[in-house]
Amino acid sequence: MAADTTASVSAPDTTGEAGAEPGPDSVAPGHFDLVVVSNRLPVDYEVAEDGTESWRTSPGGLVTALEPMMRASDGAWVGWPGVADREFEPFENDGISIVPVRLSTEDLELYYEGFSNDTLWPLYHDVIASPSYHREWWDAYVQVNRRFATAAAASAAPGATVWVHDYQLQLVPRMLRDARPDLVIGFFNHIPFPPYGIFAQLPWRKQILDGLLGADLIGFQRLADAGNFSRAVRRLFGYATRGVAVDVPSQNGQHRRVIAKHFPISIDAEAYEEMAKRPEIQERARQIREDLGNPKTIMLGVDRLDYTKGIGHRIKAFGELLADGTLSVEDVTLVQVASPSRERVATYMQLRDEIELAVGRVNGDYSTISHTAISYHHHGYPREEMVALYLAADVMLVTALRDGMNLVAKEYVAVRYDGDGVLVLSEFAGAADELKQAVLINPHDIDGMKASIMKAVTMPKRERTRRMRALRRKVFDNDVATWSASFLQTLTGGAAVPSGVPENLVSALKDISSAETILVALDFDGTLAPHVDEPEDARAVDGTHDVVQRLLDLPGVRVAFVSGRALVSLKHVAEPQSEVLLTGSHGIEVQLDANGIELGLVPEEVEKLDTLTRVLERISGPVFGTWIEQKPAGLALHTRLATAQDGQAVQREARDQLAELLPALTVREGKNVLEFSVRSSTKGDALERLRAHTGADRVLYAGDDVTDEDAFTVLGEGDLGLKIGPGATQAGYRVRGPKEVTQVLALLADFRAAATQQQ
Fold first, then answer.
1. Alpha-carbon torsion, ordered 429, 430, 433, 439, to 10 deg
2. Residue 14's pLDDT band (cuts 50, 70, 90)
3. Do domains 32-262 and 603-677 have the same CATH topology?
4. Superfamily of domain 32-262
5. Architecture of the domain whose range is 272-477
6. Fewer CB within 10 Å, N- or C-terminus of the chain?
7. Closest listed residue to residue 4, CA positions, set 141, 200, 135
8. What are phi and psi of 655, to 5 degrees?
9. This model's pTM is above 0.90
């Protein structure tokens, strides 16, 4: 643990400083519509014995996933070419434009080996090893991130999509946002994001969060990682978060929506399976077993030599099983591949010594002339050799103490087309969220790990087949192409939305129309009606009332309006038919069928409402362009007609005063409106109540605002979420505006009528 923990006082911000190299705001836009930014390029620089220089495509899964769409969209990849102190001009490789970023030997020492891998890596992996905090490392991290941002800004066309990858470049999104607000920016964090209590130790914690919040979409491996990020944002900045949505104030007084969501990464499963079926690789797998003495069981561990992987824990468990006679070296061999990693970092040098000492001790105690207990290999292998090892192994041991995903687990499953093999998987690896049929373990529990290893070794063939079949289905259904497409589909919602109804939405409407019971739940403002300056002037676009009536007349169709408005206001502007179910005030008010409006505040809530009214009237009264809207369980502070500066100041003062007087208030932020409620409820709560009331088999929900994300969150498999307008969203489909919504409802009515006639 190094010194300099007071660095946050004097650390530079991410906007540059005197004498710094040119930033991204000083370059002209490029012409690429899709730009990927990562620490390493997808190509490796090679020099042959005769001095010939060449570039070879890297075999990584990320490259495999992005190559086709980058070629199709005229994409560029920005990154370091893997050679220090060398300048390379941009070039094209296999249909992808390559934009190299120069890093010096000092950059690698301070930015990469230092801040990235001796500060962030251990911190983000739950401080399994102690992080080091040095201000000069942070300075280098800022400088190098600025260099990557500059290269990306110079490559990206106006309105382009930029996808930034991993923990080495967490400041790039904000730098790009400030320099190029026209860009659609995504960030994916390939490693875990730690709980707040750990993340808060970082002296530059606010700068890192601010850097990430420059993105429109921030992707994480696990749901827990996305939750950790949102909690850190709330604690350190006080920004409103609802579900996966974070509301970030912008300079014009408005708010920008950032989505923080998990997108578990995967592999090219079909490519691994195809390789495993090649005769020469199957023969190599047979040869590996023979070279190991044909033991009954081969156990395999494949890892980078890193303290997060739990290599020492598995060696300890295996050694104890040999020591107590539960396993014998004649029957079971452990093959451990530990590829070199960060060998100039002192922590990794020490780890290598510890692992090799442990391997030597077990082998010295239990190996025989003909059988080696642990076959240890401190070097990497080509992919073909790894596939052969996977085929040869009866049991795969993944014992990570903390891991963002661990793709080795998925590679093993993809290779086992024979339906055999057992995966023993740490519950602290991201893959455990998906691969539930693995034998899950806590690697810190050595006795538990020993029991799980024995369960794997002795597992009956029928159970092995059942588990592997389920694991393979999961891996093949969610491969790396699905991952990248899902991320980019969510991200590019931030771009302009074309008019009309897209073909994939038409297909989805046709599919949902055949359900036995359908609930069509619709937001009003911005969905059925355009936004207007005076809320009471809002009216649905022409044709909406008629198409809603068509739906109501069809068997098995229920229609509901789900609004943030009070029901009195909603009824006034929407003029709904009596059969339309209504929820107002984000689900606090409900009117279902013949029932009256349900609410009923308790005395304590009435008292809070009085206090809320006094405070907001005092704050907003003197400011032109602001007004208070009464809600059944709260009030809404509207700033649509105020200047951006006045609106932001009024909202900030309201937040500050009410946070002190009424800390338990529910606060929601919409477009130029801040809503305070004495009762907590969301549109997601309202939608779940409507589903229960109607017994609907399938749900279509349409909405345009941040608050509608709560409803999209509770949609299930087979439901249809429709986002109106731009902005990152969880909805699977989107259209431009209310006119398109009317077209969507008309199509659904047509499909439903046709489906009914066929029954």
1. -30
2. very low
3. no
4. Glycogen Phosphorylase B; (3.40.50.2000)
5. 3-Layer(aba) Sandwich (3.40)
6. C
7. 135
8. -60, -50
9. no
